[in-house]
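Fig. S4 source data, part A: sequence.
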Amino acid sequence: AELVSHLFLDGGFNTDIAIVDDHAYVGTWGNGERCPGTGVRIIDILDPEGVSMVGSVASHNEFPGTAAQSLWVGNVSNQFFEGRLGIIALRSCASTVTGPTPDDVVGFAVYDLTDLAAPALISVLETGTQGLTHLDVSVTPERITVAGIIALPSTPEGGGGELIGLYDVTDPTTPVLLSTLVVPTSDEATEPVGHGEGSVTWTSWSQVSATTRTGSVLLADVSDLANPVFTAIEPPTPATETEDEEVEQDKWFRFTQRTVDIGPLGTLNASMSDGARVVDKRADGVDHVVAMMVPGAAFDPQRWWIGADGSTEFPMVWDVSSRDGLVYVSDHHSGLWVFRLTLANTPATGSVVAD
């Protein structure tokens, strides 16, 4: 692994990445008064050694009081739309207890990104409550469908909940709610696990997998989009005491935020303060970390992520993507990093820590 380039992105917590053609799209996350509202940044990656920001959409200028944490971008061709489509989750920056104000727009926004010199907002679907914390998109010849996690307001005692919403965006100018599924909760799982967010993924045209903020893993049969049903529910894994050697640097946050299949190399994991890791599961059934890409430690100006020792400066890899031997890393505090992976002829372990 070797460092290719780094683009510092100011003004927010950098989150999800989408790579389409010669551009990367990086979202932002926020909470309460710390919500940055800087939207989705559009980055030219034609020259990986000289990536540059060329624009943004869904910023606070368009949607005040929102964060654009999750996004999908893809090339679409159907009877209603031809070109590059962007679908961006809009979640409220307001307190999860008080909820958004009546003027806040939360849900998701649909953009025409065909001409990045003049991106155009096509439509907005409002979901109410806290808006969408995460979304994924299924594209088939017949339909474009969004699956999203809708955050429900919390109570002063904690907890809260989610819905899984399904939306038809085949005609991007007129998105339509198809159905919702209430995510089950239990008395043992009312408090968020990890960093407190849920995610949803299309595993096939007829199945959605969701990981909720309470730690449950769900599978839903959505072959009938009007009547989805849960087919499997795995409750949260009970919390266990962490071994001493795992907290030798307790200012770091260690959990896998995203896993991407990269073929013969194994999987690429966004592992927060452990960086981006290439993991190979060999015949022995054990996960072997064969490469690590760790962005330089960066200061959190909003002091949201604070370690046990009071530190606010460390790597925070939120999302990863890979294409043509390049790894794109979104670091929460410091922006977009580009690394190159090379498969050696003989087994080897490599790592790079970026300054």
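Fig. S4 source data, part B ends here. Confidence is low (pLDDT under 50) at residues 187-196, 239-251, 345-349.
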